[in-house]
Write a structure and sequence with these properties.
The complex is a heterodimer of chains A (366) and B (87). With 366 residues, chain A is α/β, with parallel strands linked by helices. Chain A has helices at residues 3-28, 31-48, 50-63, 69-91, 98-101, 109-117, 132-141, 166-181, 198-207, 243-251, 283-300, 311-317, 322-331, 333-340, 354-357; strands at 104-107, 122-126, 146-148, 211-215, 229-233, 236-240, 255-262, 269-273, 343-345, 351-353. In chain A, the strands form three sheets. Chain A has a six-stranded mixed β-sheet, with helices on both faces. Chain B is 52% helix and 0% strand. The longest helix of chain B is centred in the middle third of the chain and has 15 residues, at 36-50. The chains are: A alpha/beta (366), B mainly alpha (87).
Chain lengths: 366, 87
């Protein structure tokens, strides 16, 4: 058994133990204590995952060059803390939304209420940012009918270095997806390759005057690259899918942005919802406004963005040159596994594929 | 109806001129003419043009496999008199 396989098994075991046993217990503790312990687990991951941490810091410097070394370290540590806190968020949704709802403040709900009052639904544009899935469940539990476009990551096996077993699927469905799914209007609209009815299903949801969430910061799948448009994103030109704008233009639903920020105490969060973003005019121009909003949220709080440790996705977005990915891969066997085999661990310990992030609700799904 | 729908797809949705002229029995999915967003465009067009409403359960690939299957689906959804009135 190779070192890589042993390491993968150990990490898998730790992730299963944390998500399956520790996080449910932490979710039952007083919030201050539960989230403090989650942060301690994040600090432990930060110390242990040297290769991943190094790659993450390198990616941060590459994309956000203005960060000082101390800031990079702070962001990297926070990235692990936020991932561990997300598990507590999800588990606080298991027995009703109230335990998490009282920790999440929704700012700008009047914008969403005004949008729904017009009767054409609303599209909530976001990124793979913070515990947004938990945030959307809280939003649903607060009276807004929410449906997300995104894949449950464990159902997507294409390109993975090893198959996801039925036991793994059961586990992640039980401990990750189910608590979130309880607080949604419809099942996730999952954009599998070849599933052509996705946009029409999303349009049906907004026609029913519901809220549809879309994370727009995923690199396009190979089959979708021709439809991508290049827009300014984190100081570079990124190729992203402008489906959010097309959906808005065809359905008449307004596009708002929504980002969930965790406060300095790690237990309280604020879901910030913007007024409608103009989507009239040329698709690329309108989509550029959406991408600018996501970009600004990432710059404001870089640790909240999930994608930093996923070099392949950063390359796919055009934020990091491909040659650096190759150089990284040649230097680090671990990075090779993460960026080449398409099978890697998320920051929270879940196994993900690079394709997972593409068009996910986020993670759908880390 | 075949001509109307074929014209719309050929004009608005076909990106590759090599696929034209479009045969009524040509596969719209395998040829890549219909993807998620172009299907939505088509659905919006069909609803406006033929006065039908498509539910979630109607969004099956087999209903949109070709111009012919689309026409069969639309005819099944349309009241007979509506079709005659619209010509």
């Amino acid at each position: 058994m190779g070192d890589g396989r042993v390491e993968r098994l150990l990490r898998s075991g730790e992730g299963v133990a944390y998500w399956g046993a520790a996080a449910p217990a932490l979710a039952r503790l007083p919030a201050a204590l539960g989230y403090r312990i989650a942060c301690a687990r994040g600090d432990w991951l930060f110390r242990c995952r040297v290769g991943e941490r190094t790659e993450l810091a390198r990616n941060l410097r590459q994309v956000l060059g203005e960060l000082s070394p101390a800031a990079v370290q702070q962001v990297t540590r926070d990235w692990y803390r936020l991932a561990s806190c997300e598990a507590v968020d999800v588990n606080r949704l298991r027995h009703g939304a109230r335990p998490l709802r009282r920790l999440v403040e929704i700012q700008g709900r009047e914008h969403l209420e005004a949008a729904l009052a017009a009767g054409k639904g609303a599209i909530l544009c976001t990124g793979h940012f913070g515990s947004c899935n938990s945030g959307f469940s809280v939003l649903h539990a607060s009276g807004f009918p929410v449906t997300s476009i995104g894949r449950w990551w464990y159902n997507y096996t294409a390109g993975m270095s090893h198959a996801v077993s039925s036991a793994e699927r059961w586990f992640w469905d039980r401990f990750y997806a189910r608590p979130l799914r309880r607080h949604r209007q419809r099942p996730n609209i999952e954009p599998w390759p070849g599933r052509v009815e996705v946009a029409a299903l999303a349009a049906a949801a907004v026609r029913a005057n519901e809220v549809v969430t879309i994370a727009i910061d995923a690199p396009p799948l190979d089959g979708d690259r021709a439809r991508a448009v290049e827009v300014p994103f984190l100081g570079r030109r990124a190729g992203l899918l402008p489906g959010v704008v097309t959906l808005a233009q065809l359905s008449g639903a307004p596009v708002l942005t929504g980002f969930l920020y965790r406060s300095a105490d790690y237990r309280h969060q604020v879901l910030e919802i913007s007024p409608p973003v103009p989507v009239d005019g040329e698709t690329a121009t309108a989509f550029g406004r959406c991408a600018a909003a996501v970009s600004a949220a990432i710059r404001r709080s870089p640790a909240h963005w999930e994608v930093w440790a996923n070099t392949r996705d950063l390359v796919g977005l055009g934020l990091i040159p491909p040659q650096r990915e190759a150089a990284t891969a040649s230097m680090s066997p671990r990075s090779t596994r993460c960026t080449r085999s398409a099978g890697s661990r998320s920051r929270s310990g879940r196994l993900i594929t690079d394709s997972t992030r593409r068009s996910r609700t986020l993670p759908c799904w880390r | 109806m075949e001509t109307v729908i074929n014209d719309y797809i050929s004009r608005e949705l076909v990106q590759d001129p090599a696929l034209l002229p479009l045969a009524d029995e040509a596969s719209l999915l395998e040829s890549g003419i219909l993807d998620s967003l172009s299907l939505l465009r088509l659905v919006v067009y069909l609803e406006e043009r033929f006065g039908i409403t498509m539910g979630d359960t109607d969004l099956l690939p087999e209903n949109f496999a070709s111009v012919n299957t689309i026409c069969a689906y639309v005819r099944a959804r349309m009241p007979g008199k509506q079709e005659a009135a619209r010509g």
